[in-house]
Write a structure and sequence with these properties.
The protein is an all-alpha fold. It is 95% helix and 0% strand.
Length: 104
């Protein structure tokens, strides 16, 4: 009978100690899961902020690109007009040299 009491008390002690350590493990696991969820939430928030910044920058760059393209088009048009005006002057200079250069 003494052996049975000893075995039962050992089994009971084992169950009590196992329960105690299981509770500690679950508490640690819960804290760890909470930290992971918090980190995921912070990462998600940071990612959302960065995506908004990127969208804003893309819009700004797109607007600047349109402005640069329109300004470039105007400048090229002005240069082309100037070149056409200079064509008459260059033709007149060429004709003057042709008419004033003696032929040999």
């Amino acid at each position: 009978m003494e052996i049975a009491k000893f075995v039962l008390s050992c089994v009971g002690s084992f169950i009590a100690v196992s329960g105690f350590f299981m509770g500690i493990w679950k508490s640690y696991s819960k804290k760890l899961d909470d930290k992971i969820e918090k980190a995921k939430a912070e990462t998600s928030t940071a990612t959302d902020k960065l995506e908004k910044r990127i969208d804003s920058l893309e819009k700004s760059v797109s607007g600047l690109q349109k402005e640069v393209n329109s300004n470039l088009g105007e400048r090229l048009s002005n240069i082309e007009g100037t070149m056409k005006k200079m064509d008459n002057i260059l033709t007149q200079i060429q004709n003057w040299f042709i008419s004033n250069t003696p032929r040999s």
